[in-house]
User: Fold this.
Amino acid sequence: TTTLSSAVSDSDTSFPLTSDTAFLTGGGLVIIDEGETSEELAYYTGKSGGALTIPLANRGLEGGSSQGHSSGASVKGVLSADMWNNLIETVLNGFSATDGSLDTGFAV
Assistant:
């Protein structure tokens, strides 16, 4: 979790953060202003220079809409149901079905 270092509009595609260390370079799901009337679910496609890149098509997901956000708005990485299911499958496949021991031949 971090915050926006400056405000963004409902049409911006670059989200400047106070810290980007918790976010993957390749992209992921984020919730902005969680619990607020301006809450927005979005998928960022990359990060550069301390900012997340979120194309307009990736904003306002799950029936929401693109929102303006103030400086200091919370930005939090979240798991989608598909991401969660992939994680569970990976963990389950990493252990022997016979005795529960770690399957050392399993590659992620």
Helices lie at 81-93. The chain has a mean pLDDT of 89. The beta strands are 2-3, 14-16, 28-32, 40-44, 46-48, 51-53, 74-78.
